[in-house]
Amino acid sequence: MDCDESNRIEHSPDNVTRIPPPADGQTLCLTVQSGDTVILPFDLSSVPSGESDIGFREVDGFLVIEDHNATVVLEGYIDATSVHGLDSVAVENVHGAIVDVATWIASTDPSLDIVQ
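The chain above was modelled as a monomer; its predicted structure follows.
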């Protein structure tokens, strides 16, 4: 999960950034801040589960979204949402529906041990 200028997505001037579909093996990175809306290239309309093809996890303050062999990294996500609230960075699926990031992390991050 290396972010550098070669895989960085330019932040949109209107704070609404559409992430392009990453190629297999590709990592795309976007620095986010409070007030941003990020539109992911994934259909996240199904209920997340441990068997989902898409996984969300927190790594070093970044939100990491993995789909098979492709990765999207939202740098600064954890800081922005910790300071300004969970809805300060809106994450939407490819259809424009708001994604419940906390539910996706809780359901798909294998490092969490949540008892139900």
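The longest strand covers residues 54-59.
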